[in-house]
Amino acid sequence: MGKFGFVLKVILLVAVLAAVVAVIATVHGRSGERAGADSQGHRFFEQFVVSGGPVVWFVLLPMSVVMVYLVADYGFRIRRARLLPGGKGADLSELVELVGAERVASEIAQSEDLVSVAVAKALNQGGDWFKMRSVIAESLAEQAGVLMRRIEWVNLIGNVSPMVGLFGTVYGMIKLFNAIVLAGGQPQPAQLADGISVALVTTFWGLFIAIPAVAVYGIFQNRIETLVSEAVTEVEGVMPQIRTALKRHSQRRCEQKQKVPIEQLGNKSGRSIRQASTSAQH
Fold it and tell me: Who contacts 84 (Cβ-Cβ below 8 Å, separation ≥6)?
C-alpha cells in the first residue's frame, strides 16, 4: 500500500505540473496570431480552461486532480477483498480450533481486515468474556470512524468546489461591469465576453467537480456501512468458538495450578519419611 500511495502522489504531482505548464503556455500563445482553422481540441481547451482565468487554473483544476487521486486511493483502500475477505469468520473459527484462542492474536496480528483487527485487539486486552465483546464492538466502531473520516475529504471537496465556482462567478461579473464602465456604458459584445466566460466557466468547473465528488462520497459511505454491518455478523459467528477455546484454556490453567500443590505435598511427604527412617536407624 505504501508503494501504491507513493505512485499515486507522483502521478498527482506530474498531472498538476503538466496542467499548470499547459495553461501558461496557452495563455502565452494567445497574444500571437492564430491560424484560421484551429483544431477542435484546442478550441475546447481555450473555452473551458483558458477562459476560466486564475480561479480555474490554480484552484479548481488542482481540486479536480486531488479529487481523482482521493477517489483512486480510497477505492483501493475501501474494498471488500481488503476489509472483509470472503469466509473470514470461518477461517478464524478454524484457526481457533487449530492453535487455540491464546495464540490467535499473534497469528492474525498482521491482518488488516475489520474482523481480524477487532478480534486481535480483544484477545490482546484480555479480561472476561463480556469485556472482550465490548472491545470488539468498540474496535469495529473505531475502524468505521477512521474510514468515515478519510472519505470526508471527498465530501469536503464536493461542498467547497461549488462555492469556489460561485466565487469565480462573482469575479467574472465584477470584470463584466468594469468593462461596461470602461466602455462608457456602451460596450461591444467582445468587451463583455471575458467577464461572462470567467463567470460561466468557473461555475461549470465547480459543478463538474462537486457532482461526482458527492456521488462518490455517498457510494463510499454506503460501502463502509455495509462492510461494518457484515463484519459484525462475521464476528458473531466467531465468538462461540473463541468463548469455548477460552474456557478450555482457563480449565487447563486451573488444573495445572491444582497439580503443583499436590506434587509439592508429595515431595514433602517423601522427604519426611526418609528423614524418619534415617533417625530410626541411628
Answer: 113, 114, 115, 227, 230, 231, 234
Q: Where are the domains of the chain?
A: 2-28+39-255
The 10s digit of each residue's pLDDT in 29-51 is 554 444 444 555 567 777 787 78
Summarised one tens digit per residue, pLDDT across range 248-282 is: 766 666 666 665 554 554 555 455 545 555 555 55
Side chain identity, residue 104: V
Burial class (CB in 10 A: 0-12, 13-18, 19+), 269: exposed
Cell digits of residue 57? 487554473
Residue 9's pLDDT band (boundaries 50, 70, 90)? low
| CA count, 13 A, side-chain hemisphere, 182 | 9
Residue 155 burial (CB < 10 Å; 0-12/13-18/19+)?
A: middle
Strand residues in 134-246 grouped as ranges (E): none
Q: What is the DSSP letter of 35?
A: P
Q: Classify residue 158 as exposed, middle or buried by CB count within 10 Å of its CB (0-12, 13-18, 19+).
A: buried
Distances (CA, A) of 104 to 53, 85, 99, 124: 59, 18, 7, 10
Predicted TM-score of the model (pTM): 0.74
- In this prediction, residues 143-164 reach a mean pLDDT of 95
Asked if 12 and 65 touch (Cβ cutoff 8 Å), the reply is yes
